[in-house]
Amino acid sequence: MRKVVNMTDPAQPTATCVRLGQAHRGFCGRINAIHVHENAHGLAAPEIESRLLELGFVEGAEIKVLHEGPIGRDPIAVRINDTTIALRRREAMAILVTSSN
Amino acid sequence: MSTQTDISIRHFALVGTPNSGKTALFNALTGSRQKVANYPGVTVERKAGILQTPSGHNVHLIDLPGTYSLRGRSPDEEITRDVVLGRLTSETAPDLLLCIADATNLRVALRLVIELKRVGRRLMLVLNMIDIARRRGIEIDLDRLSAELAVPVVTSTAVRRGGTEELLRRMDEMAAGGLGPSGENTWEPPTAGELRAAQREADRIIAIAVGRPARPDTISARVDAVLLHPIAGLCILLCILFVMFQAVFAWAKPVMDLISSGFDALGLAVHDVLPTGLLQSFIQNGVIAGVGSVIVFLPQILILFLFILLLEDLGYMGRAAFLMDRIMGGAGLHGRAFIPLLSSFACAIPGIMATRVIDNRRDRLTTILVAPLMTCSARIPVYTLIISAFVPATYLWGWVSLQGLVMFALYAAGIASALGVSFIAKHVFLRENYTPPFMLELPAYKLPSMRSVAIGLYTRAKMFLVRAGTTIFSMMVLIWFVASFPRPPEGAEGPAINFSLAAMIGDALQPVLAPVGFNWQISVALIPGMAAREVAVAALGTVYAIEGGKEAAEQIGQTLAGNWSLATALAMLVWYIFAPQCASTLAVIRRETGSWRWMAITFGYMLALAYLAAFATYRVAVALGGG
Questions:
Q1: C-alpha angle B130/B131/B136, rounded to 5°?
Q2: Regarding beta strands A62-71 and A74-80, do their DSSP bridges make them parallel or antiparallel, or are they unpaired?
Q3: B215 CB near a chain A CB, below 8 Å?
Q4: Rounded CA separation B468/B353 (Å)
Q5: Is the dihedral of CA B504, B507, B511, B514 positive or negative?
Q6: pLDDT digits (tens, 9 = 90+) for A6-59
Q7: How many CB pairs lie under 8 A apart between chains A and B?
Q8: Which residues of A touch B (CB under 8 A)?
Q9: Which of B353, B594, B369 is nearest to B459 (CA)?
């Protein structure tokens, strides 16, 4: 079920792989990797990673950006499998996704 | 299990992710036989109730705060972890964990089940909202699911009558001791790798046991296209807030007037029956007025919580927070703080109680701290009295009422100072090392169960009367005492309050308040004015020896215009924007934060702001010739 991905450097977006935090409304894809940058958040990186995982953001999950907030297109509402999660773009930057459209 | 234990009470605990319908299920199972209190030492709500299974076993059911994992990221989640692990000394360790899952959304719930299995307690998975899942065409193979998880599985529909029959039957079996002893606890906080592995295992089981629906939830998606639309969504949110504000402000008014006049009439009746003296004054002005001042808040609290419970059960609250996140975030406030703050325009008491919708402790404290700065309805009588006495009824540019403009400025000053204080609180005083991330599930919309809403309202009302009410009542009696003792000597001239402790305190405060332009009459009136802001109007009337109390507002206005300078009047208005002139608000802050410290901080910072602002206003006004 999971897509085989190039795991050489999961921290960097590639041509086919973008950060969810930069994706626009209507973006469809699959989660490629979760990689939280230290110092990008107030919380420790492993804590942010755990929270994302607990909400169902795991590698291989299908994702679609459904809505954007009214100011600065932030936060975003993301459909992940059958759940809808709202999160700020800042946290979504940690989620690398491969576009399927 | 021996027959002896059949008569003893079983302890079951409800665990589940947020939005799993856990509270609705708890309400359906326990009905009104539930008690809401706080866990010792923390502000986390403890909800517990008693139920009887069909064959007569008594079960003590506890509804634990919703959580995605046992890692304990917040005080609420720590409670869930500690009760589940049996670490909380004040709580009996549960005999059975009922893990509640939204049957339409099993991914995250099954990961939690996998984590809970490691605790070693008896565990049962309850697939709640099974009716919605079936309607949507989600096919769940219960036997397969149970076999894969090695956990018994049962279905329920909390919001339907009879929807919990199967669950109760299984609880009966469990209570009778059908499952053998619990195992060893091997739980440790899961690492990111373990969370990933558990989620993959959950996804594997779902692939085997759950048939994905032919029709996904299109209703919620279609509704969200409108409600989360950047422009339409905000407009609708503003409309909802406007209706809510109107309801709390206007709908409650007739009932509140009825309650006030009812208690006034009761007081007068007692006044006529009892002989003149201390007892008469105590019963009328202490006890009856004190009880009245508690009950009078009930209509606003009930209306506000009706809206909150309906919006929460509908699934709208998360959407509102989504829309407001950036707007409120700029001032250091949580997206959910807008409902408490808006309600505070009517009255800070329901507003502060409504901060329960904010999970994060720091965000909640900030909101509680600034809620009393919102211009509540009790300030209006004071504002209108002083404005009509001192501000000329002229129009600027022919159409802007100067009096209206001053009123608007007072409201604006309240809002601006609230934003300023929350900003400072966030960046200076309450600075923990991080801003909590905003991540939350937007659940599918569902119709609220009226029974569950009614139970929610009932528990809120009871909690307010018992917990906040007792503190408010004792403060009222204290203020009566201060304003009545000692009694005036025989044959003394002037109003009785001039001989009381209140007058002594007022006199003592006078030198302190003189720099802001307050005379001794104001200083004295501020003491009974602690009962409620509008009481200051009547108190000023009493001090200036005007007969007729509140009804004589116009006469009081004329007296004030003759006795005060414009600078004093302006200083008084500014004082009322900030001053903590409301004992009930302080009492509720004390109850809601569970600490005297936060009450003292609120009192202190508001007093400091009031003094500084009134001082500046008075000095500037005097310098400009208003003295």
A1: 95
A2: antiparallel
A3: no
A4: 10
A5: positive
A6: 444 555 666 678 999 999 999 999 999 998 887 655 677 888 899 999 999 999
A7: 122
A8: 1, 41-43, 46-56, 58-59, 66-72, 74-75, 77, 81-88, 90-91
A9: B353
Question: DSSP 3-state assignment of A58?
Answer: coil
Q: At what angle do helices B583-593 and B596-623 cross, to 10 degrees?
A: 140
**Other CB atoms within 10 Å distance of the CB of residue B175:** 25
> What does the block give as tokens for B220?
């919620």
For the stretch B461-493, pLDDT in tens is 887 787 677 777 887 788 788 877 777 777 767
Q: How far is it, in rounded angstroms, from Cα A33 to Cα A12?
A: 10
Contact in structure between A62 and A42 (CB atoms under 8 Å): no
Instruction: Please give the structure tokens belonging to residue B59.
Output: 């079960």
Length of chain A: 101
- B-chain CB neighbours of A68 within 8 Å are 230
Q: Which stretches of chain A are assigned E, i.e. beta strand?
A: 17-19, 28-34, 62-71, 74-80, 83-87, 95-99
C-alpha torsion sign, points B409, B413, B414, B418: positive
d(CA B63, CA B79): 11
Q: Which residues, in sequence order, are CB contacts of B560 under 8 Å at separation 6+?
A: B385, B386, B389, B390, B540, B544, B569
Tell me the whole-structure pTM to 2 decimals: 0.82
Phi then psi for residue B277, to 5 deg, are 155, -165
Of B199, B197, B186, B195, the residue nearest B85 (C-alpha): B186
How many whole angstroms separate alpha carbon B443 and alpha carbon B463? Answer: 28
At position B1, the amino acid (one-letter code) is: M
Residues with Cβ within 8 Å of residue B437, at least 6 apart in sequence? A41, A43, A48, A51, A87, A88, A90, A91
